[in-house]
Amino acid sequence: PTMADSQALLVLENFIGGKFVPCSSYIDSYNPSTGDVYCRVPDSGKEEVEAAVKAAKDAFPIWSSKSPLERSQILNKLADLIEHDLEAFAQAESKDQGKTITFARTVDIPRAAHNFRFFASSILHHVTECTEMPAMGCVHYTSRAPVGVAGLISPWNLPLYLLTWKIAPAIACGNTVVAKPSEMTSVTAWMMCKLLEKAGVPPGVVNVVFGTGAKAGEALVGHPDVPLISFTGSTLTAQRITERSAPHCKRLSLELGGKNPAIIFDDADLSQCIPTTVRSSFANQGEICLCTSRIFVQRGIYSEFLKRFVAETKKWKTGNPSDPTVNVGALISKEHLEKVRNYVKKAQAEGARVLCGEGVDPLAVPPGNQKGYFMLPTVIAEVKDESCCMQEEIFGPVTCVVAFDTEEEVIKRANGVKYGLSATVWSGNVGRVHRVAHRLQSGLVWTNCWLVRDLNLPFGGMKASGIGREGAKDSYEFFTEVKTITIKH
Ligand code: NAD
């Protein structure tokens, strides 16, 4: 960037011990809908992580000794402050990530505020266990205590939503945290830091260190005074984090990628199923770990489904994310756009048919967005199960539709990938819905709906989609250390 440009750039600072601190070097951050550098993110490393961990350690004794009610009130206040600034947060998230302003306004930011409100409430309602052994004259009970400094690492697809889904339970339980958001989407985390003091979060309870995974992330994972790491991101990074934390026997929660099937039986209500499956395939540009990317349709309704599904997909408007009528914004980066496009090319080379979107329909974006990372929602048919498009996580606006004949066959094919995060099943037959849901290797199964969540219940994946679950009880268990105490009377 030139001198003139750099003056207009937004420059973020780390938030350590309740203070914003500049960093000695910075990373450029792009606006995905224009392709311009618009922000500079601290390129933190060992030194910054060290300072943040120290601040978190220093804050731990006071924060962990507060009552759940005191912490709950602070979390609620933080939720109020985020809600108060909802529009500013939504604008920032849309600009930073490329997602539509509508999605940021209705999903990302409301959920970020709700994460604090939800754990502010749930922390008040946990009970521990107690058993009696009259013959021995003993009573046993469990007690739970915060673990210490939690390391929290989050991805770029739902930036503030996923970061707060970790910060809220961690601090509600009495831990202090060092968080590292994705270097590609750091702005809303920085904005949240500005609200912490007003909410009453004491200095050092929430520290945010910005930077890359290779530098800041690795320093955090390798730090001996960070006994637990909650990570959401790709399976490949999770493997690296597991290796790095193994010498310290750290507690890990890993929320990873997916290759989520939708299974559509011939008795499905297509008027509900089609718009929902278009949404589950393309919401947030397909950049949600829970997005559908393999659609199995029973043969009797296959051609009708395809026709209606493509027609519905074509109604989705791609363009400037700040236009509230747009459904598909920009992908996160130039490299990611190339990667997603390449999957479509590979499918074509293998003989699959691209029914709409990439390479088939014209993409028209406004003049100011010509250098943005846009791609039309793309539907591919006649893809082989072993094709990379049916096996690997694409994480973009691409979905594959294939036909199946029997229940037995489709369960096997749906389970035939390394991932196991979520699945949807569409059928009017209640017995079938239960049978299929039980047999799918998937941490979440939605039948006749998608993305309806009760935060009380476990969220997470099987197989390469992760280890551990998050939710009211699960997050409480992860972010606390349990002790069994026996009293003889
Ligand atoms: P990523 O793994 O590249 O990065 C995630 C985070 O890890 C970033 O903050 C990154 O800087 C950091 N990181 C990278 N290398 C690291 C290292 N060696 N040590 C420590 N930290 C490191 O993932 P991404 O591309 O940002 O996100 C997309 C992925 O996240 C997809 O696979 C998606 O499915 C997954 N995801 C999963 C869930 C879920 O809940 N299961 C939710 C959203 C996204």
UniProtKB/TrEMBL annotation:
Pathway(s) it belongs to: Amino-acid degradation; L-kynurenine degradation
Give the Pfam families listed for this entry. Aldedh
Reactions mediated catalytically: 2-aminomuconate 6-semialdehyde + NAD(+) + H2O = (2Z,4E)-2-aminomuconate + NADH + 2 H(+)
Primary location: cytoplasm
**Keyword annotations for this protein?**
Cytoplasm, NAD, Oxidoreductase
Subcellular location per the Swiss-Prot or TrEMBL entry: Cytoplasm
**Which residues are catalytic?**
255
One GO term (biological process): retinoic acid metabolic process
Q: Where is the Aldehyde dehydrogenase domain?
A: 25-485
Q: Which InterPro entries match?
A: Ald_DH/histidinol_DH (IPR016161), Ald_DH_C (IPR016163), Ald_DH_CS_CYS (IPR016160), Ald_DH_CS_GLU (IPR029510), Ald_DH_N (IPR016162), Aldehyde_DH_dom (IPR015590)
Write the Enzyme Commission number(s) for this entry: 1.2.1.32
Q: Which GO terms describe its cellular component?
A: cytoplasm
Molecular function in Gene Ontology: aminomuconate-semialdehyde dehydrogenase activity; retinal dehydrogenase (NAD+) activity
Q: Which PANTHER family match?
A: 2-AMINOMUCONIC SEMIALDEHYDE DEHYDROGENASE
Q: What is stated as this protein's family in its record?
A: Belongs to the aldehyde dehydrogenase family.
Q: What does this protein do?
A: Catalyzes the NAD-dependent oxidation of 2-aminomuconic semialdehyde of the kynurenine metabolic pathway in L-tryptophan degradation.
This chain's protein is named 2-aminomuconic semialdehyde dehydrogenase
Its gene is Aldh8a1
